[in-house]
Amino acid sequence: MTATDEFASVRYVVDDVAAAVDFYTGYLGFTLLTHPAPAFADVVRGPLRLLLSGPASSGARATPDDAAAPGRNRAHLVVDDLDHEIERLRAAGLSFRTDVVAGPGGRQILLTDPSGNLVELFEPAAR
């Protein structure tokens, strides 16, 4: 293993790198780290680095053909006020894949990026 650095990285295979960059930076508070190219860009939010790999990227080409659909994994983003975030994102024209689910740890809702990758917005329960 190599030494860890400041980010935990997750790769999302996307259909359109520019659309993915616009989604994550425009709606979810990510900052562009690498200038987007047709094949790849990366964005960061806190310690999370999302690798956005388009169809021409080596990361996407390494993905098995039978893994074409998004999996059940998702980026998990903690928010202070879930209701406010839902209202803000709906006003921007985004739709959600689920309704709000509440449990002992908090409340969550799922939305998708432009390529169908899941993003969970999570508001922890009051401690």
TrEMBL record:
GO terms assigned for molecular function: dioxygenase activity; lyase activity; metal ion binding; methylmalonyl-CoA epimerase activity
Domain of life: Bacteria
Pfam families assigned: Glyoxalase
InterPro entries: Glyas_Bleomycin-R_OHBP_Dase (IPR029068), Glyas_Fos-R_dOase_dom (IPR004360), MMCE/EMCE_epimerase (IPR051785), VOC_core (IPR037523)
Segments forming domain VOC: 6-124
Gene3D superfamilies: 2,3-Dihydroxybiphenyl 1,2-Dioxygenase, domain 1
Annotated GO biological process: L-methylmalonyl-CoA metabolic process
Key words of the record: Dioxygenase, Lyase, Metal-binding, Oxidoreductase
The protein, known as: Catechol 2,3-dioxygenase-like lactoylglutathione lyase family enzyme
Source species: Nocardiopsis aegyptia
Lineage of the organism: Bacteria, Bacillati, Actinomycetota, Actinomycetes, Streptosporangiales
